[in-house]
Amino acid sequence: MIKVGDKLPAVTLMEYIDTPTEGCSLGPNPVPVQQAAAGKTIALFAVPGAFTPTCSAKHLPGYVEKAAEFKAAGVDEIWCVSVNDAFVMGAWGREQNVQGKVRMLADGDAEFAKATGLTLDLTGKGLGLRSNRYSMLVRDGTVLALNVEAPGKFEVSDADTLLAQAKKLKT
């Protein structure tokens, strides 16, 4: 399992772009993790699935609500990662009004989850291989703080916990 001091894995996530810009077309766009994190402080949190109850009611909304506080604490970007496709992550982001606050990154093949060792097997529940629920603070691609939830829990990966860590580790 990834731990404090480790580098983020060299995998590519996907992000659905609603409005085309220079270098980003409408629709799914690749986000090479190490390149995207280079030179930035990232508040990254992962959820088992888009549109699921705890993820939609508590986890993602907390980060959206605290986005300005994360910026003030030196965080450049907030990333939400889930084992869903980019279309689903884009739709979930629109529903949750995340634009400009949280990047919704799809780990469609669970490559990131597998590479970090933070998978959650929900095959018996019809959901297949997913990501565990966790949060991490990353600076220039290196993990500074990691908060992994116990199965079925939502106690340490919330926005308030990671925000406190970001404030403490601010340079």
TrEMBL record:
Tell me if ATP-binding is a UniProt keyword of this record: no
EC number, as in UniProt? 1.11.1.27
Q: Which Gene3D superfamilies match?
A: Glutaredoxin
Q: Identify which residues the record assigns to the active site.
A: 55 (cysteine sulfenic acid (-soh) intermediate)
User: What residue intervals traverse the membrane?
Assistant: none
**What keywords were assigned to this record?**
Antioxidant, Oxidoreductase, Peroxidase, Redox-active center
Report the domain of life of the source organism.
Answer: Bacteria
Family matches, as Pfam families: Redoxin
Q: Which GO terms describe its molecular function?
A: thioredoxin peroxidase activity
Q: Which GO terms describe its biological process?
A: cell redox homeostasis; cellular response to oxidative stress; hydrogen peroxide catabolic process
InterPro entries in the cross-refs: PRX5-like, Redoxin, Thioredoxin-like_sf, Thioredoxin_domain
May I have one GO cellular component term? Answer: cytoplasm
Chemical reaction(s) catalysed:
a hydroperoxide + 2 glutathione = an alcohol + glutathione disulfide + H2O
Domain spans labelled Thioredoxin:
2-171
Similarity remark: Belongs to the peroxiredoxin family. Prx5 subfamily.
Q: What does this protein do?
A: Thiol-specific peroxidase that catalyzes the reduction of hydrogen peroxide and organic hydroperoxides to water and alcohols, respectively. Plays a role in cell protection against oxidative stress by detoxifying peroxides.
Could you identify this protein by its name?
Glutathione-dependent peroxiredoxin
